[in-house]
């Protein structure tokens, strides 16, 4: 068993092949948005509610040193852009695999937007980070979207499938993509890649039951789990809602069982 396999087990600690990620990397792109004003408190309830992994930028990992008890797996996010700047969809590297190891991360993640003018640069970064992860035996989470001036509008399921395939072809160990519209597309994507695929939670949704049913649909189609940020930390009762998601993913319970507002 290699180092990467051991580190991946820290994320898939329940041995059911499923994963609930709690991404908290929004502060660089969006600033201290609602729900992320107090990061330590968010990390505490995320861990207490059963998240299998957190996604953090390097500076916020300092809070982890204050937290008691067992930590989940930690992905250090390596790419960034801001809403203030001229090219929001162009993600650039702001860290390295070696730095993530020094800071104590269990894996690294990057964000790639296909269809942006800077797509070639982001693909080059994807390849370089994947190479370093292979060298250092570090799990690699690739968050890949179809966004930018050259992206189809609306984004098609074929484009989402293409994005997932790019991530797999270039060395991802876990792929995060937005939910395709059709179940058949979900099944085709999962069948066409050799690594786990997790569904992105996306923007805050008003209909909680519909959001949870979308997660359930993805799980039934073969997705390994979810990566949910805003729909948890901007929820009126984030800890309870995250617990419901964890129960849905890991216990296989019906939506009506886990969430009855």
Automatic annotation (TrEMBL):
Q: Name one GO molecular function term.
A: fructose-bisphosphate aldolase activity
Residues of the signal sequence?
A: none
Q: Where are the transmembrane segments?
A: none
Positions annotated as active site in the UniProt record: 145, 176
- Please name the InterPro entries in this protein's record: Aldolase_TIM, DeoC/FbaB/LacD_aldolase, DeoC/FbaB_aldolase, FbaB-like
Looking up PANTHER family in the UniProt record yields: 3-HYDROXY-5-PHOSPHONOOXYPENTANE-2,4-DIONE THIOLASE, FRUCTOSE-BISPHOSPHATE ALDOLASE CLASS 1
State the protein's name. Answer: Class I fructose-bisphosphate aldolase
Recorded source organism is Desulfosoma caldarium
């Amino acid at each position: 068993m290699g180092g990467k396999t051991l580190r991946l087990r820290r994320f898939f600690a329940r041995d059911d092949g499923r994963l609930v990620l709690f991404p908290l990397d929004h502060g660089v792109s969006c600033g201290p948005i609602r729900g992320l004003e107090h990061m330590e408190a968010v990390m505490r309830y995320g861990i207490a509610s059963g998240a299998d992994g957190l996604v953090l930028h390097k500076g916020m990992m300092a809070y982890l040193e204050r937290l008691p008890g067992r930590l989940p797996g930690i992905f250090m996010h390596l790419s960034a852009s801001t809403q203030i700047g001229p090219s929001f969809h162009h993600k650039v590297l702001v860290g390295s695999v070696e730095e993530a190891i020094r800071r104590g991360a269990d894996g690294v993640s990057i964000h790639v937007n296909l269809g942006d003018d800077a797509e070639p640069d982001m693909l080059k970064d994807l390849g370089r980070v994947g190479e370093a992860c292979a060298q250092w035996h570090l799990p690699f989470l690739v968050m890949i979207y179809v966004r930018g001036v050259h992206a189809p509008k609306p984004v098609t399921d074929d484009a989402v499938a293409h994005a997932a395939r790019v991530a797999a072809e270039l060395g991802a160990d876990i792929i995060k993509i937005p939910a395709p519209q059709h179940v058949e597309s979900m099944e085709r994507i999962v069948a066409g890649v050799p690594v786990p695929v997790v569904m992105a939670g996306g923007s805050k949704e008003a209909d909680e039951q519909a959001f949870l049913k979308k997660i359930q649909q993805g799980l039934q189609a073969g997705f390994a789990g979810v990566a949910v940020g805003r729909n948890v930390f901007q929820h009126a009762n984030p800890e309870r809602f995250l617990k419901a998601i964890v129960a849905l993913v890991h216990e296989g319970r019906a939506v009506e069982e886990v969430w009855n507002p």
